[in-house]
Amino acid sequence: MLSFVFLLGFGVSLEIGTQQSENHPTLSWQQCTSSGSCTSQSGSIVLDSNWRWVHDSGTTNCYDGNEWSSDLCPDPETCSKNCYLDGADYSGTYGITSNGSSLKLGFVTEGSYSTNIGSRVYLKKDTNTYQIFKLKNHEFTFTVDVSNLPCGLNGALYFVEMEADGGKGKYPLAKPGAQYGMGYCDAQCPHDMKFINGNANVLDWKPQETDENSGNGRYGTCCTEMDIWEANSQATAYTPHICTKDGQYQCEGTECGDSDANQRYNGVCDKDGCDFNSYRLGNKTFFGPGLIVDSKKPVTVVTQFITSNGQDSGDLTEIRRIYVQGGKTIQNSFTNIAGLTSVDSITEAFCDESKDLFGDTNDFKAKGGFTAMGKSLDTGVVLVLSLWDDHSVNMLWLDSTYPTDAAAGALGTQRGPCATSSGAPSDVESQSPDASVTFSDIKFGPLDSTY
């Protein structure tokens, strides 16, 4: 039995701090109709709880650097009783600014009391609720500027099957809820979340050797994930990942699928996903600085979720990509590798064929494939926007040759033009502190209605 269960009877919960007011930056988006008319929707964004200051009833840190206070947090129950999750100074501490329909995420921000690296935010419907999207038989569109993102960084926009209220309704310990960015989960089942279901993840906590701000606890938090956009100025990919559990799930041990325990394919989630990366799939002149889709300029990205019968109730059969730049509509690149059928979108057949050709484990199929992804999209998903560097493998899986020990020219290993020596967080943070990504003009509606 997971440890958070027995805590419910103690009447304790993570409290809301008052040291910093919480004012969510506004971010408008548009809901479109089949006729092509779009109506502006009022929205806002909220910073993930993992980035926030956690302290006692005064100003003593419950979590400092990459370690929990042994006095305030010797165990989950005491930690929840002692600690407060506080508001955020979005621009001053985290380098997050919004203006109308535009959101800019800065990389390294020197605040009054600390240096912040990257961020993760969620689109909100109202103060206590994340905006939920149901994507089947619809398209999701946004404009993005990645011109200021070098190798090793990832300006990401994606969806995860989080609870709309941040878990507050299911888990009394999660009192701050969506108002303070709680409830995160993804297909990597991250262990670095300080609170899962409101419960402090202090058991077996180990500071990460390569990250002075992060560590890993006993539990992970898992859910199905649809990566619409993972990119820097050199490479981009879109990727569905699925899990065998419905919604957000707290994992422990083998079910987390930890790679460092050689259990990557034994967990509840498909961590590899089924990715469409033009460079990896044989077209090295499609996306990048000065190329067909020019990453030196803003680009509008359209992702369509096609169903078997053209209805919301149909089976998910295809995930299609379109770009718009400089007034021109640009269809996605086609695969260009011998032995792989020439296609320009993600389908079940593409996933099976590419996994087989590249010699990759087809965990996407094993975990349920398009059927499972369609089920998740029926439930509804939360929009996530983030900027991050990679303390595990330096983002080489996105923009370089990976695995680095693969045979020269091995199919599927060349994912982008960046050097295998690039992307080390210490290098990126010191050499490109002013890096940033800007997302704008989010639109959602029926197919072919948003561009």
From TrEMBL:
Residues 413-435 are annotated as: Disordered. GO terms for biological process: cellulose catabolic process. Gene3D superfamilies: Glycoside hydrolase, family 7, domain. Residues 419-435 have a biased composition (Polar residues). Pfam families: Glyco_hydro_7 (PF00840). GO terms for molecular function: cellulose 1,4-beta-cellobiosidase activity. InterPro entries: ConA-like_dom_sf, Glyco_hydro_7, Glyco_hydro_7_sf. It catalyses: Hydrolysis of (1->4)-beta-D-glucosidic linkages in cellulose and cellotetraose, releasing cellobiose from the non-reducing ends of the chains. Its EC number is 3.2.1.91. Keywords: Carbohydrate metabolism, Cellulose degradation, Glycosidase, Hydrolase, Polysaccharide degradation, Signal. SUPFAM superfamilies: Concanavalin A-like lectins/glucanases. Belongs to the glycosyl hydrolase 7 (cellulase C) family. This is cellulose 1,4-beta-cellobiosidase (non-reducing end). It comes from uncultured symbiotic protist of Reticulitermes speratus. The lineage of its organism: Eukaryota, environmental samples.
